[in-house]
Amino acid sequence: MTSDSRPIAGIEPDAVTRWISDNVQGFAGPAQFTLIAGGRSNLTYLVTDTQGRKVALRRPPTGSVLESAHDMGREWKFITALQGTGVPVAAPLAFCDDHAVTGADFYVMDFVDGVVMGDSDDAQQLSEPARYHASEQIADVLARLHSLDVNELDVPGSRKTTGYIQRQVERWTAQVQAVMPPETEQVVRIAQLLIEDVPPQVTGIAHGDYRVGNLSFDPEGNILAIFDWELATVGDSMADLGWLLSTWSQPGETAFAATTHTPTQAGGFMTRDEVTQRYAEKSGNDVSRIDFYVAFQRWRGACIQLGVRHRYEVGAMGDDGYDHRVLDKTIAGALDAAEADLRR
User: How does strand 54-59 pair with strand 32-35?
Assistant: First the structure.
């Protein structure tokens, strides 16, 4: 039933094609599956049917999955609950919890055909005025997400008004200790510094990975969709802003300032300070302790990348051509920067 008979990591093409055809109205096989490059955690596929209709499929890595780390049901619940809220997400189409189909839970959503900026080369797809507008959109949409009343939405996560950062520190420390990389001692040391200085919690939705590379834009810089909801929960909203800023490079920076060299390195975007100020104006949230959240997110980002590196080392991420060894320097830089900031 498929137009491409080559092996596809994580996909049983015939079974998945039948399932989508039965559960997504108007979808007709044979289908073609393409692993979308750039994903370093859950796997994302472009699925094209015989009429050229495109949908996206999300499933966990194919092996060595830490318990609760890749909950597809969580992603599904968030994008479903956010329909109609003004927060841009892809339309959910169907969810499958029958592992007989392809070995894991997965879901299908509309394919959002926009500009996704993984690096500074990708940013060249937008003009400089569009990049500046994209910066405004990034701050505005995050403020809109954080303004939602979590008690009116059917989303997973604790409604506790304290303890989010502490729980996150415990969770990510445990996941690192589960695979015991060489960096474990430093991870634990920074975790203790974080626990000793946690600000009061601002309770709301925390996307968990809100950054430029998880957003799709139109040519004018408007956000079409937020992707990758696998880490989303109810928690401390300020953690999202800390993560966004920790991944926000600025032109000309030579010292370690962001977890990666991101699209914002290309120029034309707002500065980190400008993004912070616009978010504060739009959300009304106090940003005076943002430096703590940036340090926390440098540490958390390193923990996530340690998990990604481990999954590549054991062959659980499919053959997408990514050289996971480039993560070594990024992980070391993030941990060192987080520790230095917290000790200051």
Answer: unpaired
